[in-house]
Design goal:
Strand content of chain A: 5-15%
Largest sheet of chain A: 3 strands, antiparallel
Oligomer: homodimer
DNA sequence: AAAAATTAATTGCATATACAACTAATTTTT
DNA sequence: AAAAATTAGTTGTATATGCAATTAATTTTT
């Protein structure tokens, strides 16, 4: 059978997928090689917390663009690793405020130069203009697919 | 605490992550809304099989750039959904050849116009030049981070 | 031919993700 | 104040992913 989706190769989709897959693998590996026991996702959460400590889980889920169930389990993992703590609100017992721990702050700080170096590696040989253009295109993509998220698949 | 990773926003990394996340969500949702019961990953596998039917699992894992354990479980799911079948080799009983089923071929064919429309949506308002430039940058990224990875599961 | 090494695939354990259904707490209605 | 609706978070079930260890089959050594 011939490749019924051959045209796809001229679109950004498969290349985005491949690049992301490569980056994910590289970053995880790079962190590990540097002795940084953090996943990319955990780093994202820590970074958000460093700017917005003590958020209710649901807020955090929103900021991290993740499902609240996903966040629940992420926080489980991160609490187990002593990166964050849950603190039940006294005003509203339903709410868990999530705080970054000392240990979490330490790891985040340690991550900074490692992330910096990893990014340099990833963007090696790519010009400033190319980076800016690419970011601009990526923003357009996000806008395209997020804009009418709620109604999107219906109108086509 | 100030954002110790604020610089990151000027790199492609977070924008790539956000765009991919948005795309993944959009595609899954779009497929579902179109009544296409396939995940993105399953479509990738079907596409590879349509070009290379009857591959041993391990080969397929290589072509799909996935771990062989990941492939094992993917094939479990896809076999359950009657998209593919495992056929033990007579020459070497360790090997499972993976074949796309009639049903799988049907879904793949049905997917073609849907994928096409989804991609149009995703790339809406982005010029041909921008797409080409972006693909070129994405290829550079993959090259940068794959260079000595696994001796590069490249082209395709 | 028997022992050792290699290979293909699977299973155990772990992370990450999301929808649906649920529990418990709070707020809004009546 | 009691009933109804809403809200925050968790649990069940599902997909996807990968490393380490295992099993079973084949090939290579001795």
């Amino acid at each position: 059978m011939k490749d019924v989706l051959a045209d796809l190769e001229n679109t950004m989709l498969p290349w985005l997928g491949r690049a992301m897959k490569s980056i994910d693998f590289f970053v995880l590996d790079y962190f590990h090689a540097c002795g940084l026991e953090l996943t990319k996702t955990q780093l994202i959460i820590l970074r958000i917390l460093s700017k917005n400590d003590g958020q209710p889980q649901q807020n955090l889920a929103f900021l991290a663009k993740r499902d609240k169930t996903s966040l629940t389990r992420l926080i489980n993992t991160m609490e187990r690793k002593k990166l964050v703590t849950r603190v039940q609100s006294k005003d509203d017992k339903r709410i868990n405020h999530i705080y970054i721990t000392q240990n979490g702050q330490g790891l985040l700080k340690a991550a900074v130069p490692i992330v910096k170096k990893a990014v340099e590696e990833i963007q090696k040989g790519i010009t400033k203009e190319e980076i800016e253009q690419t970011i601009s295109v990526l923003k357009k993509i996000s806008k395209n697919v997020n804009a009418d998220e709620l109604t999107a698949p219906l109108n086509h």
